[in-house]
Design goal:
This protein has 390 residues and is an alpha/beta fold. Helix content is 40%, strand content 15%. The mean pLDDT is 96. Bound molecules: pyridoxal-5'-phosphate. This is O-succinylhomoserine sulfhydrylase. Keywords: Amino-acid biosynthesis, Methionine biosynthesis, Pyridoxal phosphate, Transferase.
Length: 390
């Protein structure tokens, strides 16, 4: 079925591979490394791409194609390619589009491994990155140079839940002829579609809310067809492809994305409101709380507030560690976007190698705690947080 008039949930459920002769209702798993050809001419025409068909699962696979097609419909994007992880998507997107001597302008608050790519690995190939403060978008243009090619940001950010105006980024990108790339992992296409605001490419770690159950790793980049073509050719040769099994899982997960997100966000708002009233909490950052500094922008570009909350515990580093030690029901884990609520303390874990100043530059204070609110009964999550905060 291919009706663009269908609603989000219908597209997520009814975008499906053609049935085989077995007339299966649920899509089967195509665990096959390669595909066969009728004859020499069929093989030749397939390799020259005169025929659009599967050749080898590093290039494409039916399960992967179904997953990508769904994400494209959800994001309103022309084309896409699926990766083994979110980081494979981030790396391959940049590596495919940039040449030695090119320059990236990015928000400083980006996921830790993306920061490592920008600061440790890309400079090896003479690709430099300048960071702007996500809370000072008026400074962005001052970082743009003649060799700047990509403007990059996450919104909301990991882990501080900062927000940036996607429409404003798009205006700047168009004015300076830059490719606007947005990591939409914290929002998912149900909550926010950056293409609608003018993004050229959208990246997801599908490992998070798209899987939603903490099972498999995956990533995807969708957007302008001409750019995806370059990313596809790069990836076809370098091999970061998503496995058919993970694609099958992720495509099934998309069928329930909307209902899961409704509940995740409902729970998260209740937890955020509870935290705002707790005497041991200094401040809470959640996009749909009026106290979020970018509340109006969040309301403009997001359908719901997401499932991630950042809050500042009173007492700094030690209080953050003590809080984690007292947690009983929620999990201490590095993932986010699971059915299970997960709490982390970035200053003593994921970002402990950064100096205090480096952490502050990306809005990570010593007492910052990140919660990925799950789908448990919300009063049980609150009871656990309350006893751990007391
Ligand atoms: C915003 C963001 N982008 C990218 C990634 C990388 O995704 P993956 O862990 O699937 O490689 C993450 C992982 O936490 C993330 O939070």
């Amino acid at each position: 079925m291919n009706n663009s008039e269908f609603g989000f949930e219908t597209q997520a459920i009814r975008t499906q591979l053609e049935r085989t002769q077995f007339q299966e209702h649920s899509v089967p798993l195509y665990l096959s490394s390669s595909f066969v050809f009728e004859d020499a001419e069929d093989m030749r025409a397939s390799f020259t791409e005169e025929k659009d068909r599967n050749i080898y699962s590093r290039f494409s696979n039916p399960n992967t194609s179904e997953f990508v097609e769904k994400i494209c419909k959800m994001e309103g994007a022309e084309a896409g390619y699926a990766f083994a992880t979110g980081m494979a998507a981030v790396f391959s997107t940049f590596a495919a589009l940039l040449n030695a001597g090119d320059h990236i302008v990015s928000a400083g608050s980006v996921f830790g491994s993306t920061h490592a790519l920008f600061m440790t690995y890309f400079p090896k190939w003479n690709i430099q990155t300048s960071y702007f403060d996500i809370n000072e978008p008026e400074t962005i243009e001052s970082f743009i140079k003649p060799n700047t090619k990509i403007l990059y940001a996450e919104s909301p950010t990991n882990p501080a839940v900062d927000i940036i105006d996607l429409e404003l980024l798009s205006v700047i990108a168009k004015k300076h002829n830059l490719i606007l790339v947005i990591d939409n992992c914290f929002a998912t296409p149900y909550i926010q579609q950056p293409v609608k605001w003018g993004a050229d490419l959208v990246i997801h770690s599908a490992t998070k809310l798209i899987d939603g159950q903490g099972r498999v790793l995956g990533g995807v980049t969708v957007g302008r067809e001409d750019l995806i073509r370059q990313i596809y050719l790069f990836s076809r040769n370098t091999g970061p492809a998503l496995s058919p099994f993970n694609a099958w899982i992720l495509s099934k997960s998309l069928e329930t994305l909307a209902v899961r997100l409704e509940k995740h966000c409902e729970n998260a708002l209740i937890v955020a409101e509870f935290l705002e009233k707790n005497p041991n909490v200094n401040s809470v950052k959640y996009p749909f709380l009026k106290s979020h500094p970018k509340y109006e922008i969040a309301k403009k570009q997001m359908l719901l507030g997401g499932n991630i909350i950042a809050f500042e515990i009173k007492g700094g580093l030690e209080a953050g560690r003590a809080f984690l030690d007292k947690i009983q029901l929620c999990s201490l884990s590095a993932n986010i976007g699971d059915t299970r609520t997960i709490v982390t303390h970035p200053a003593s874990t994921t970002h402990s190698k950064l100096s205090v100043d480096e952490r502050l530059a990306v809005s990570i204070t010593d007492g910052l705690v990140r919660i990925s609110v799950g789908l448990e009964t919300v009063k049980d999550v609150i009871a656990d947080l309350e006893q751990a905060l007391s």
